Amino acid sequence: MLTPLLKFLGLDIAKEKYSYGIDPQFGFMSSAKIPDRWVKTTCGYCSVGCGMYLGVKNGKAISVRGDPDHPVNEGTLCPKGLSEHHSIHAKGRALHPLLKIDGKLRKVSWDMALDTLVGRMLAIQRRYGPEAMGVLSTGQLVTEEFYTLGKLIQLGFKTTNYDGNTTLCMASAVSGYKRSFGSDGPPGCYEDLEKADVVFLIGANIADNHPILWNHLRKNEKRILIVADPRVTKTAMLADLYLPLKPRSDIALLNGLIHILIRDNKINADYIDKHTEGFNDLKKFVEKFNPPNVSKTTGLSEDLIEKTAHIYGNAPSAFIGWTMGVNHSTQGTETVNVINNLALITGQIGRPGASPFSITGQCNAMGTREAGFTSSLPGYRKFDNQTDREELAQLWNWPVEEIPKTRGWAYPDIIEGIFKGVIKGLWIIATNPFVSYPNQKLLSDAVSRLEFLVVQDGYHPIPTSAMADLVLPAAIWGEKEGTYTNSERRVSKVNKALDPPGEAKSDFTIFLEVSKRLGAFDKLFPGWKKPEDAFNEWREISRNRLCDYSEITYERLRNEGPIQWGGERLYSDGIFKTESGKAKLFCVDCHEMPEAPRSDFPFILNTGRTVEHWHTRTKTGRIEVLEKMSPEAWAEMNPHDAKKLKLRQHDLIRVLSQRGSIEKIAVRITAIVQPGQIFIPFHYIEACANNLTVAEFDPLSREPNYKQCAVRVERI
Fold it and tell me: Residue 699 pLDDT more than 70?
């Protein structure tokens, strides 16, 4: 009772709580945040791949600091990184295996949990066939775990219906790179942002959502920044030239720029002739994308389109970057192909400052793309290539006929397979589709038809684990060892600072234990005991591939720091991974968005991120400082539309689509969005944007069209 009185009188100033001290490594800092030891590691949120130190004291994570020697972030961190240590001791960690008994999840031993997983899944496969088991993974595991899981599922359980939530964010970039260049792999690096004469960002709000990348761009004082986005994002506000194009008109804009560059001879004819194929067809195809037609489609003036083309075409070096504004579309892959067309015909690839560059999604989306055995065989090998399969069979000492010849179902097709009754058992690992998947009503209906659902996560309950028959508690960032690979192909070490809480185990350990119960451990993972064993095998699997890790070792990563596979840039020699060695140019037409506005649903919904939160808020929603910064969802609406609907700032509204609704979301009236459009962040289960979104997917990449659907707004 005395302390509150002393605080009220101003006599207790919480001196111990707010005192400062000297840390031997980082100097002057809060005493409460000075640890017994600093553990060097890599951030576990987004694909930027920032280096950091995690501070540990008395068995607790108490602080983080940016690594000043890491080339990605040079000591700086975004709000999520600065508070990441709080995720380790947050409320709601999954502590024990839980099995549904008599309708309730009850604590069981690991032996019983894993015996149940293997026994139930094998029983389903015996009854319905091997493809009756499906697996949905993540972009959050370390590469060693992705490699292990891929072998376990495809070779151990012998099901090809295995995919990850990277399909929900990066699959279109992967497919686009494969079609244009013959292989996945972002060609450029972050340094290109610092060296480019022109930086052209399409559907990429890096100032808000990738602020560390913005720091790289800020170093470049000579550059001209062009931003194309339907929404006036923070990045758009900082642009030298802003293109407020209509939703889903980016293909028309890009084809229009190509038309002008060809017309005005602003192309690199020598590069086109030596290193590309399909130019004559492309030249003829883009004739219809003249400035008047492109202006009509995009809503941009002809002068602005011409100006953009000439700025890009006259640049000695030009960088094109994109994120979800491109990928989240039923034409995402083809949009990436048109971006690549623009870079190729101007020779803007493989040189400092010149690259078509996909900014990846999750911290290790690159690791799963390279090693994960989902959309391709490990090492960017192709399922349908006999030589690739034979090579792996020899390296693995595995029968070649047991290596899949085709890719299994992608994420949305797995959900559809459940809905149709083909898949009866599902294992979900470190992802939360009951927030992240489009058309939540369809997902709920599908999952209700499963015979057995396993959810493996670091937290429980979350919306997805609450539906599970079996919950497996997993270690998270800070509690396990391995590597992440970031957007610029830079491999960084991830180190363990603490043991996981309760009975939680690392995903790597869980996968090995499952393989033992399958009777496949000795054949799949001979002699493996630790993640480094998986990494060393992966190094050999990747040898002489584009994503060659063979010279990267744990020792080098410890001593030298992060290392880029492929060097700073790919394709500097102009030789691509196609049969001809030349990059392919594609003719891509514009399609209508899958759901256009109409009288009863007159608005176009756009979804996206906020810097304080990560995906479904499984981690960030439990961190007090981030929740206080951004505690709830909102809907942005143009003042013109708000006036027509008689809405005032912060009024509560209902947003409805043909699939569902969001109730009681506050409106922000702002000219950031154009008339006829609204924007809602997708992080919040309490106002789940995916109650509204349409379950339409890119036919090539299978990535969802999160960015456009028709909605209406009602005042509450």
Answer: yes
Picking from 26, 111, 5, the residue whose alpha carbon sits closest to that of residue 68 is 26
pLDDT tier at 6, thresholds 50, 70, 90? low
What's the fold here for domain 100-169+363-478+532-542?
Rossmann fold (3.40.50)
pTM score, whole prediction = 0.96
Domain with CATH 2.20.25.90 in the chain: 2-87
- Which helix (H) or strand (E) element contains residue 711? strand 709-715
Give the rounded percent of residues in the chain with a pLDDT score beyond 90: 96
Written as one letter, the residue type at 491 is V
Q: Give me the long-range contacts of 218-221 (CB less than 8 A, separation at least 24).
A: 219/193, 219/194, 220/193, 220/194, 220/195, 220/196
- Return the ∠ at Cα 301 (arms to 316 and 201), rounded to 5°: 40
Sheet holding 482-485, edge to edge: 482-485, 490-494, 563-564
Which tokens belong to 372? 């994960």
Q: Is the pLDDT at 97 greater than 80, yes or no? A: yes
**What is the pLDDT, as a whole number, of residue 361?**
86
Domain spanning 187-359: which superfamily? Dimethylsulfoxide Reductase, domain 2 (3.40.228.10)
Residue 514 has pLDDT above 90, yes or no: yes
Q: Are 643 and 109 in contact (CB under 8 A)?
A: no
Output the CA–CA distances (angstroms, integers) from residue 540 to 259, 319, 392, 537, 553, in the order listed.
45, 33, 10, 5, 11
**Helix 302-313 × helix 250-263 angle, to 10°:** 60
- Most distant CA pair in the chain, distance: 84
Closest CA to 66 of 46, 36, 41: 41
CATH dotted code for 2-87 = 2.20.25.90
CA gap 232, 668 in Å, rounded: 14
In this structure, the chain runs to a length of 716
| Secondary structure class of 39 (helix, strand, coil) | strand
Rounded to the nearest 5°, which phi and psi values hold at 388? -60, -45
In the block, tokens 């350990």 appear at 509
Please give the structure tokens belonging to residue 698. Answer: 């890119």
CB 33 within 8 A of CB 62: yes
User: CB neighbours (10 Å) of residue 374?
Assistant: 28
Answer CATH for 603-715 from 3.40.190.10, 3.30.70.100, 1.10.357.10, 2.40.40.20: 2.40.40.20
Taking Cα atoms as reference points, which of 366, 477, 475, 457 lies closest to residue 39? Answer: 477
Per-residue pLDDT tens for 556-610? 999 999 999 999 999 999 999 999 999 999 999 999 999 999 999 999 999 999 9
Q: Looking at residue 1, what is its pLDDT?
A: 52
- Two tokens at 216? 């790289």
HEC string for 608-677 = ECCCCCCCCCCCHHHCHHHHHHCCCCEEEECHHHHHHCCCCCCCEEEEECCCCEEEEEEEEECCCCCCCE
